[in-house]
Amino acid sequence: MTRFATRQDVGTIVRMREDASHWLVDKLGVRQWERPWPDEETQFLRIREAVDEGATWIFSRHGRIAATVTAYERDKGGFWEPSLKELGLEDMSALYIHRLIVARDFHGLGVGREVLRWAARRARRLRLRALRIDVWGDNPGLRAYYEARRFTTLGRIPERVQRDQHIYPYPSDVLMQFQLPHRRLNKP
Questions:
Q1: Given Cys at both, which of 30, 36, 46, 152 links 24, Cβ 3.0 to 4.6 Å?
Q2: What fold is seen in the domain 2-179?
Q3: Which pLDDT belongs to residue 187?
């Protein structure tokens, strides 16, 4: 089952992020999300704002929360368009994915792939041309995960753009994209 997240889910989403952070450090030695960015309060407010805007979704299996994702129909962070321009790449309409988190009990069961397929279907219904995600630059395993699902790396958010957007240093600085086919939906 897929549903919009509510204010009652915010604490669960924060805990899922914390659990994912501990798992990344313990199992992979990856320090992604070790500290809330830019700080705990701001991160909490961003999560709550995304829920209030109807941009955060909850995915359940067997009556339990299995995953969450935030998906915007616009560049909420404001860094994609100037980054692509500086990198000399074309901009296009896209669904922007943030905070795709799979609950630890559901790790390795294809839930992340299921969320990406849902996002691709949603983007197609909205007549968008791509899925986009900014990925933690120091997590090659995460980049490989998305590359295995046919996302391509477009580049990194240029430092100048990060400074202009007041997000320097932004840890999720690798820009990745899955371009949706024109005729039929291929699964990422």
A1: 30
A2: Aminopeptidase (3.40.630)
A3: 60
